[in-house]
Amino acid sequence: MTQIPPTPIRQVFLILLMAGIFGVLFWNLHFFVPSLLGAYTLYVLLRGPLFFLTERWKWPMKVASAVLLLLSFIVLLLPFNWLFVVLQGRVVSLFQNSDQLRQNAEAIVRSIEAKYSVSLLTPDNMNNLSNWVVGAAQGVVGATVNGLGLLLATYLILWFMLTEGKKMERSFFDWIPLRHENVTFVRKQLNDMVWGNAIGIPLMGLVQGFAGFVMYWLLGVKDPWLWFALTFVCSMMPVVGVALAYVPLSLILLAEGAEGKALFILLYGTFVVGSVDNIARMWLMKKISHTHPLITLFGVVVGLQLFGFIGFVFGPILISLFILLLHIYHKEFHQVG
Question: Which of 245, 279, 311, 332 lies at 20 to 30 Å from 101 by C-alpha?
Answer without folding.
Answer: 311
